[in-house]
Amino acid sequence: MSEQIETDQTQEHAMKAKAPSASAADSAQAAHGSTMGDAQAAHANTDAAHTTDAGAGAAVQQTSTSAAQQAPVPAVRYDHVSKVYDDAEDAEPAVDDASFSVADHDFAMFVGSSGGGKTTLLKMANGLIAPTSGAVYYFGEDVAHTDQVKLRRKIGYVIQGSMLFPNMTVEKNILYVPRLRKFSKEQQAEALERALALTGIDSKYLTKYPAALSGGQQQRVGIARALAGNPDVVLMDEPFSAVDEITRRQLQTEIIDIHRKAKLTILFVTHDIDEALRLGTKIMVINRGKMQQFGTPDELLAHPATSYVEQLLADHD
Fold it and tell me: Which of 82, 220, 281, 305 could serve as 293's disulfide partner, Cβ 3.0–4.6 Å?
């Protein structure tokens, strides 16, 4: 715009130079017109600059908004959550003002001493336990304001000892959630095939009952049942603590492989720091309800945030 104004002014001055000499009054008027033209040009230049600045500001604002919109939503986010089970004023909270986010596809380990608040936090993710204060979000949606029955059927859940239905065959145990969610027969067949493939369970076990399985086999069936509903998130509460050390190592290797292949988000409770460091992409350390640190295994090892984390890592093999 400013270039156009400057061109117009140049043409105007050139025409005046070719015109016959004017009277003093005409000269004064021409000088006044030239001055007014310069002022108008300067004003136009200022307007152009303001327009450019405004455009740049809008572009910055649009870029910022676009970046915010593109930021990935965490699979599970804990926002200043606390939980007090006892109504007494001096009751110690099971969880005390914890805030952290588990990104989609993370393998997040919750580790700490017994009674520290690990399982309480885990059960907040699917609404089994409601926080006394604060909020928990599942892919951006407040868990407290969702249909929690539907939510729990979308989230896989594995607990210590697998807790299989003793009166159901392995196949019926695995397909329990797909049938609750009214999967078609074709969808159930696909879910069963996928769960068996991920967990390595031989189809010959499908007609057996839990009592006929070893502890490790039962745990694999429990994991298969959690996966059969095709969840995005799986909660695991000390799932390997009831099996022997050899079986436990095998199951750890298998769950790492399952996490990678199925692209799951896993929240996993353990009291074993070695297990946490081996399995986790992120580790949340909690003690007596207070979150001590949340970070990658390397971050914890290099920069323990509290004396409790240091003590926990001192026990690491």
Answer: 305
